[in-house]
Each structure stands twice: as C-alpha cells, then as structure tokens.
Amino acid sequence: MLLENTTNDDGRPKPFRLLGYCPVCRQDTVFEGHNDWHRDYLNCTKCPTGSVPRERALALVLSEQRPDWRNLAIHESSPSPRGISAVIAKECSRYIATQYFPDNKWGDVVGGVRNENLEKQTFSNGQFDIVVSLDVMEHVYHPEKVFSEVFRTLKPGGLYICTFPVRKNQVAGWERRFVFNQDGTRHDIKEPEIHGNPVSNEGSIVTVDYGYDLHQQIAEWAPFNVRVYRFCDKEHGIIGEYTEVVVCKKPMA
Fold first, then answer.
1. Which residues contact 110 (CB under 8 A, 6 or more apart)?
2. CATH number at 62-249
C-alpha cells in the first residue's frame, strides 16, 4: 500500500512510503525512500541496518527455496555487515564469509575473514549447500571461472543465489566493460563505473555488464539449471531498477 507520495508546502517531495512486510527482519513495516533510486534508498524502517530492495529480494527467494537455510552450510562472498547478510551470519551456524584480499595468501584468515579468490577457490568439492553473493559478479574479470568454481564447491542439489545489475537495454548474456593490455594497463570499452566495496574505500570497478540472455550464458559456463526472478513486489518493498535474483541449481545427478 502506498502511504504517501506528495510534496511539502515548500514544494520538496515528501518521503516515498510503502506499507508491507520485510523478509529480512520478518516484521510488518514501512518502507521509506528519500531518493527516486529505490534500489539503494528504499529502506525498511524496522531493519537495524535498513535493508534495501535487492537484500529483501534475495531474502525472499532464499526462504522460499530453502526454508531450512539456518541448518545448512552457506558460503557468502564479500558480504556487507547489513541486511540479509547480517541475518545469515547471525542465524546460520555453518556460515562462512569470505573477502578478496589479493595481497594475502588465498585461504588464510585476514582480519577475522577468510581470504578467497572466487575464480580459484581453496574450498573442497561439494562443501556447501548454498552460495550467496550480493552484487559481486559484476566485479569479477572471469565470470565463467567463478560460476565453474561455485558449481564445484556446491553439493548436488545445491544453490547459488546471487544479485547483480542486469542491463535492460542489452540482450547479450555478458559484455566486458574493459580489457587489460599486455603491459597490464586497462583499456576501457565503456565509461568506468565504480561501486562501493565493504573492505576498500577505493570501491570496485564494474568489469562486466549482464544482459537478458544471462541465464543461457551461465548454463554454458557451468551445467547449472538457471532461473531469473524479476520483481515488482510492493508488499515486500522490492521495486525499482535491477531487482533480479539469479538462482543456479546444481543437478542432483
């Protein structure tokens, strides 16, 4: 239900508000936004860290697909201490979080967090029931290696649940935004785009744009069964751009 979307006496817009239920904090709530870019600014007013739509979308799909996730082995790559990531870390006893520290040895613990390169992980085969990442895959240089490695580390029937921007004006499954020259310098194909990074103030450059056919591309990189969930779900505060949740299931056989 839309509660309010009008202007103040001075002409400034009042906050955008929706009444609904948050799948992150699991409470009836008001979703409130002070910016038209709902993906980053439509917050749950009950969540301690104010969850945003992509976090709520992943939480909803996770609970629908694996309602017993608290008892399962979960690997999350590059989590922020907020939203559904904070809930999984608190409530799942078999949860492992990893970050990317390229100047340190892979598999070591750095600042209390395991150090992993998603393109060449140190985890054993079939170690996890679920792998999760929120807005990570647009920052890897070799996505085909990452999907292959995630497939390897999942148990049969395991799920990789992830979010990343899907460009609505692009059909091709993926396009590079830049390439590296032989001398190590970067050649930009598209205008550089920088996103936030939970472990670096410098942020993370976007390496790859994904398009409509991404589900077919992923299935070529690794033998997953792939589903793409798209939302316009006011009840759960999941509206705006880039609401996709991608679910990759490793076959049982």
1. 99, 101, 104
2. 3.40.50.150
